[in-house]
Structures are given as C-alpha cells and as structure tokens.
Amino acid sequence: MKQIIECVPNFSEGRDMAVIQQITDQIKTVEGVRLLDVDPGAATNRTVVTIAGEPEEVIEAAFRAIKKAMEVIDMSKHTGAHPRFGATDVCPLVPVSNITMEETVAYAHKLGERTGRELGIPVYCYENAATRPERRNLANCRSGEYEGLRKKLGDPEWKPDFGPADFLPRTGAIAVGARDFLVAYNVNLNTTSTRRANAVAFDIREKGRPMREGNPVTGKIVKDEKGNPVNIPGSLKECKAIGWFIEEYGIAQVSINLTNVSITPVHIAFEEASKKAMERGMRVTGSELVGLAPLKVFTDTGKYFLKKQNRSVGVPESELIKIAVKSLGLDDLKPFNPEEKIIEYVLRDRSGKKLMDMSCAAFADETSSESPAPGGGSISAYMGALGVSLGTMVANLSSHKPGWDERWEEFSVWAEKGQMLKDELLHLVDEDTRAFNMIMDAFGLPKGSDEEKAARTEAIQQATRYAIEIPFRVMQKSFETMEILKAMAETGNPNSVSDAGVGALAARSAVMGAFLNVKINASGLSDKTFVESVLKQGAEIEKNARKTEEEILAIVNTKISA
To answer: Yes or no: is domain 4-178 CATH 3.30.990.10?
Structure first.
C-alpha cells in the first residue's frame, strides 16, 4: 500500500498572486504530487499551500517550491500580521496513511538537510522533527522573527540544524517539521446563540475558560503571581475551539481544530460536544468537515459507532465511511462526497484501466480476451480475495447470530482481519498485471549500444524479480486467510459452514496458482540465491495450504453430515 504524506508550506507572500503562482507552478512539475489547496491572506501577507502524495515526490515538490520562493520573495521588504522569519517560513510534513511519525521525521530531516546544503538556507527543525527539546515549539524557533534573525544566527545556542549560520537578507531562515494531522471541524447546534456555542467550546477545548471569582460569568478573572489569567481546563486534549454564528446556514457552530487526532479523534470531539450541548439545553444536529481528512478518520469513526452498537467492525471500507457520515451528520448542511473530502481518495490514480474497477462480467471478459494479462497471477489473487471474503461473511453472520450476542466481539476481530486481507489481495490483483507489464516494457527498451544493453538487462532483471515477489505475496496472504476460514468452520455460524469450506478451496487454489507464477518467473532471474530461497519457502507454504485445506474440509463435512 502506498505511503502518503501531506506537506503544508507557508510562504511569506499573500498579496501578489503572480508570485504565488510561480511557486505553486514548481509544485505542479512533480508527477504524483497533488496540489490540494492554496490559501493566500492579504493581512498576514502569507500563503498556506497544501500538497500530498508519496514521500519522495512530496519532499521533491517542497524543495522546488522553497527554491523558487528564495528567488521571488524578498524578506527585507516583507510586512504582515503573522509571525515569520523566512521566505518559506515553515514547511511541516504530516503522516497521512501507511507511514509512521518516525518515518515522516526522517523525510523532514532529508528535506532540511538538502535545503541547507544546496540552497544555503539556515534550517531549524521543529515539532516531532526537533533535534533539541527547546526547538520543538515553533514559536521558540521563530522568536525574534526576521528582524532578530541576524543576531539569533550569531548565537551558538541557535546554530541551525542544517545549512550555514549565515544571514540571508532576501531569504531569511526556514523551519522544517513533522507534526500530526490537524482536522478543522465544526459541530452544528440547534441554536442561533454565539454565546451558548462559545460556552460549549470552552467546555471542551484544552485551554478551557478563565477562572473567575464568585460569578462564573461576570466575576473578576483570577490571575497567578505573574499576572497571567488562570484557566479551568476543558475536557479534550489537543483541541482548540470557539463558538460562532454562520449566517449562511442560520445556526451557531462550535468551530474546532483538532491538532492531534491520535489523541482526540473526530468522533470523540463530536460525542463530547454533543454531551456538553445537551447539558446546556441544546442539541447537536450534525457537523461539518472543513477541508480534507485522512481515510483513517472515517474508518475509526465508523468502527467506534459500530462498537457502541455491539456490531462487527469487520465490514467493507465503504460501509464504515457511510456509518461515519451518518453518525456525525456530515451531510447535515450540504451533501457529503467522500471522493472530494478523503485525502487518499483525492490522490487515487484514476488513469488507465484497473481490473478491480470492473464488474465481475467485465473482468471475466477481459481475462478471456486475447490479451496475455490479466493471467493466472491476477486470477490467483482474486481467488484468494473471494475465499477470505467468504470467511469474513461467516464471521459477520456469526457476530449477529441471535443468541450469540455475547460473542459479537470475538467474531468482529476475525471479520476485521478478513477485511484487511481481502483488501490486500484485491490490490495484488492489479499489481500482478502491472508486474507483467513492467517485464514487457523492459523487453521493449532499446538494445543498440553496450550501455543500452546493460540498462535493458538490468530493467528486465528488476521487473522479473518483482514479478516473482507479487505472486509470492499472494501465496503468503492467501495462506494467512486459512486461519480465519478454519476458525469459522470450527466456531462460526453452523448454517454457513459450507461457505467456510468453499473459502478454503479458493484459498488453497490461490496459493497453488500463485506458486505456479512464482516458478515460471523464477526461471528468468539470474539471482539464484533469491530464487532458491523463494522456491523453498513457496513449497512449504503450498504444502501447509494443502494440509490446512484438508483439515477445514474434514470439519465442514463432519458438520454437514451430522
């Protein structure tokens, strides 16, 4: 599965759209990176740009944008309401899917090191990418702003993490970081009162509300020994919130920024706002997502509400999203389109013909045509996906079986695992065909000069290795599905035991079919050590799959004939 990160560079220009376009045009030169948003502000004289894609491509696009900003922005003439110290003021990377924060930090450091080395810009790393505790807070890194930067660079304590400690009058410095995803999210109330919406906001936001003497509304604000107001903390961490009235919809909202959804997820913010609103005589009617959010926000929300109902969470991704949208009331104010609001969906490659986008009949027609792909590898992956789908079905039926209510979670765990394996095997259906096409493309490379011949040979070997790895992965994943199928045959709904048996037949066939593809492709690879290892492992997987199939069928037949 693709790793996806978001990058949100802030450029110190928000008034001259021609300058901003020169910067964003550089981002567009990197294939695979999607420019999601450009948000200029005249008062701040600052533009916030949002891009997303695979990590290497994203940091390449960010580097090109930083380089162009260095050329077209003159910080010695910059004024604006927002704190700043550089032409590209900040450049945070945000993990979106299939990537850890630690990996994201490594990419932030890679971008920072290249920026300092090639462009000579002083680079400070902040948030999770910080190299020292005092640099974690962006405000500390940017203290003194552009006007105080020359002095700051002369202080050994503030030597940049990357790049020289040189003051560049036109460019300033840059803060490169790695942070968690920020979700902008509004909760709709059945009131027009901004004051009451603010009361809910103060109840839930981490900062809370000022402590007052006597009357909690009109009393004198309590201050500490330094003269700073003392606050009563709200109920949610990593949450900022305020109440406002939206004239367009004629309602008040609690406007929320969730700065770390791994600490306070969207569904928890919704539940807490609903609880606090009800305590104050109001009701939440729905909510609104501002901008985009990662897929995980929706799948986590769907699972949360299913668990509250004691229902299996091992349902398809589309069902989880539907439940999330309805549970949060994301379609309260206007229709909600997941294709436009989920980052991974916006970034989906829609070019070319994908097997998994076809109907069953079209897939069969495509397979039966004179084209050599899809072939046995893709069909093996699809058999594996169908086999585990049957096992997952049995798990879900068992979870909802009357009289088995106390066992819903047991079967939900199996169903959730089944959905994960199903999704990966479906991905491998198209990936096997792509691997075949890579080999064909490699054979089509020119072979005139010695250099061209060497490059062609290397490309063929790399493509061949990949064409072995993909069906081998199909073998591994298909065999993993048999654990679910065996469990469902043993403990699942007895009325569906035959479905577990059919699933086992499909899984075993998937393993054996994929192994045939491993073996035929292995004959063309020169790395015999790799080939020997894969064939040995493959033979063991095939042997175990046959044995497990026999065990499952024995259980099934015993129950059918009982």
So the answer is: yes
Digitized pLDDT (tens) for each residue of the chain, 562 residues in all: 689 999 999 999 999 999 999 999 999 999 989 999 898 988 889 999 999 999 999 999 999 999 999 999 999 999 988 889 999 999 999 999 899 999 999 999 999 999 999 999 999 999 999 999 999 999 899 999 999 999 999 999 999 999 999 999 999 999 999 999 889 899 999 999 999 999 999 999 999 988 887 877 778 888 888 888 888 899 999 999 999 998 888 999 999 989 899 899 999 999 999 999 999 999 999 999 988 899 999 999 999 999 999 999 999 999 999 999 999 999 999 999 999 899 989 888 766 678 888 899 999 999 999 888 889 999 999 999 999 999 999 999 999 999 999 999 999 999 999 999 999 999 999 999 999 999 999 999 998 899 999 999 999 999 999 999 999 999 999 999 999 999 999 999 999 999 999 999 999 999 999 999 999 999 999 999 999 999 999 999 999 999 999 999 999 999 998 6
- CA 66 and chain centroid, separation: 24
Q: Measured between alpha carbons, how far apart are the two ends of the chain, in Å?
A: 44
Q: What is the C-alpha to C-alpha distance for residues 541 and 492, in angstroms, rounded to an integer?
A: 25
* 220 phi/psi in degrees, rounded to 5: -65, 135
Q: Which of 300, 430, 432, 499 is catalytic?
A: 432
Indicate which residue of 16, 82, 332, 527 is catalytic: 82
Write the CA distances from 384 to 206, 350, 423, integer angstroms: 47, 25, 11
Catalytic annotation on 82?
Answer: yes
Task: Return residue ranges of the chain for CATH 3.30.990.10.
Answer: 4-178
Per DSSP, the residues of 403-423 read T-GGGHHHHHHHHHHHHHHHH
DSSP 436-481: HHHHHHHHTS--SSHHHHHHHHHHHHHHHHHHHHHHHHHHHHHHHH
| 183-346: CATH number | 3.30.70.670
CB crowding 425-448: b at 16 or more within 10 Å, else e? bbbbbbbbbbbbebbeebeeeeee
Tokens 């479906």, residue located: 426
- Let me know how many helices (H) and strands (E) the chain has, helices first: 17, 13
Q: Model-level pTM?
A: 0.83
Helix segments in 47-126, DSSP class H:
55-72, 101-119
Q: In the chain, list all ranges with CATH 1.20.120.680.
A: 355-561
Letter for the amino acid at 168? L
- The topology under which CATH files domain 355-561 is Four Helix Bundle (Hemerythrin (Met), subunit A) (1.20.120)
